[in-house]
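Dock calcium ion; give full complex structure.
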Amino acid sequence: MKRLLLLAAAIPFLYSGPPVTGIYEIWAPSKTGIVWRHDNALSPRRYQPESIGPGVAIFDYNNDGWMDLYFPNSGPCDFFQPAKPLRAALYRNNGDGTFTDVTERAGVANAANFGIGAAAADYDGDGFVDLLVTNYGRNVLYRNRGDGTFEDVTRRAGLDARGLYTSAVWFDFNNDGWPDLFVGSFVRYSKELEKECMTAGVHHYCYPASYEASPSKLYRNNGDGTFTDVSVQSGIAKHPGKTFGAVAADVDGVPNFLFHNLRDGRFEEIGLEAGVAYSDDGVARSGMGVDAGDYDGDGRVDLFVANLNRERFSIYRNLGNLAFQDMAGPSNVGQETYMYSGWGLRFVDFDNDGDLDLVLANGHPDDRIEAAHTGLKWKEPLLLLENRNGKFVNRSMDAGEGFRQEYPARGLAVGDLDNDGWPDIVIASNGAGPVVLHHRGGANHWIGLIGTPPGAIVRWPGGSRFITAGGSYLSSQDPRVVIGLGSTAKLEWIEIEWPAPNRRRERVKSPAVDRYNSVGRAAGRASR
Ligand SMILES: [Ca+2]
Ligand SMILES: [Ca+2]
Ligand SMILES: [Ca+2]
Ligand SMILES: [Ca+2]
């Protein structure tokens, strides 16, 4: 351990110039064509929603097998009238490292709203992925018509609600085969409700404790294009929180919505047990970005929660029976994250060796923090932490130039943008352009699966992977799963356990490795 620390500290002195290699390379806007930039609506008054977004969605809107990108933008609201019209951006992936802005033709500009986050799923089962955009104002559901265009069906679908919405998650909580929708609400907010938070006569963003909590929304998908608001009957409305991130995972054999709220930023005092108190589903409470994944390979889904600086991030090991233990200390996560404020994050096997590593996007919520606190910065670096038997080793120093820069990062999504089986990363920054980090690849083998829904479990001779929904912050992830196989070039079998209620197990013998395989309904579609 000591030796590792010394090596890491020595690297900057060994190289005088920036290394030309690294695990990730930046795909610059000049190469990708992704020149859109987020406008954070920054005002001298520092209205809270300015500091919250944006997220990013990775999804294949035109079913050509290449993952496309969607970025929400701010827009008109009670405290902000843009000087010139602002819009979100949908970029079509051309499959050659370039992207084409198709926002106008697709009709997803969301220009009338103050956009924050996005979540993609095929809610109506027509084979085309739809898009829910969360806003300060009213959320928007864009139905994918399948011809490259979308229609706003929010009102017809019954999703018209006003508020300050953050992360949304599509997840079939009642196991009827239709994806339901959780929409996190941050706080009760309007221009009039904004508080006075000042240092030396200058406004800065208030901490969440300044605001009144507001209940999140849970909508049941009726299967006919409409939704029923079940926030009250599900108990979610009884627990007004300050929800930033949200993830859905099967932590105990039944689907749980694990949403967390700030509750003055104190997770430890509430405790997860106290938080799992509504109906039969679980509710976890705390920090900002979240994710779920079985990082220690014991067959139970663990949780990760990012917090504000000096709070340490939490990695909750699932002990079974809905008991969790924070492993921040022993896992090294606490030490590596102590000075950061975390937003988008993801369990991802970046080295394709079979275990889940972590990528974290950070940034202080208050752009004026540097004037108030020495040692804290608005822009912070990304972190890449490699899982070595449950301990996380900081690999940021050799992860490429993207990990040596600092960003006002918020959203983060992981997806394979060039279909080479290696996970690329997209960061959405507050008031700046997105950052696309391309994985340079490696020698390890992998197998990709298309068509594994949230709630499914994938097993192979070397381990298992739980398919979750949501996670990160304001963002939506590549729905495909990639299993890293290390040096193993042949796989005897891979098994998919489909979600409840049928829990059917489907075993494929000698599946093709180093490529994506369609399974279930996706396989049916592919063979048509
Ligand atoms: Ca596409
Ligand atoms: Ca659809
Ligand atoms: Ca790994
Ligand atoms: Ca890739």
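Observed: Residues 122, 124, 126, 128, 130, 144 surround calcium ion (ligand 2) (CB under 6 Å).
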